[in-house]
Amino acid sequence: MTAAKKTKPSERPENAARPCLTEMPYRAVVFAELNQHNVPLYFVGGSSAPKCKAEKALKVAFGIHGGSCFYCKKAILEADLSIDHVEPTSNEGGKAIQNLLIAHRKCNQKKAALPIEAFHPDAGKEWLTALLAQVEDRLKRIDTSK
Ligand SMILES: [Zn+2]
């Protein structure tokens, strides 16, 4: 790809590499760029931390902005923090920011490998709805006029 090539909005990586959840700490994680392996790197709003991958960025964002467990909705102390991969991480895609939630270690262990909607229907509905809204927004960016 050459620098002169014009990128359509639908092709910009930030459209595919942003959190689907809009509350803190998720919305503090902002896409910066793709690294040499095409892995998204993020800035964390309110932080001077260097660009980093999604899981690290979410931990940094939690450290600054705090947050509550996506499952039980109670506050998390830093020592109890875990990053839940909603879908199992069998590939790099599983580490995408959309797939990460903050949860208590105990809540994360209870969920184990269950589908989110089976483990916690309310949390599953909330996450799937946010993901669907993001997918619908991306679908709208596809230029079908040609
Ligand atoms: Zn919890």
From TrEMBL:
Domain HNH nuclease: 53-109
Single Gene Ontology MF annotation: nucleic acid binding
Nuclease in keyword set: yes
Protein name per its UniProtKB record: HNH endonuclease
Keywords: Endonuclease, Hydrolase, Nuclease
Sections of the chain in a coiled coil: none
Record carries keyword Isomerase: no
InterPro entries: HNH, HNH_nuc
Gene3D superfamilies to which the protein is assigned, alphabetical: 1.10.30.50
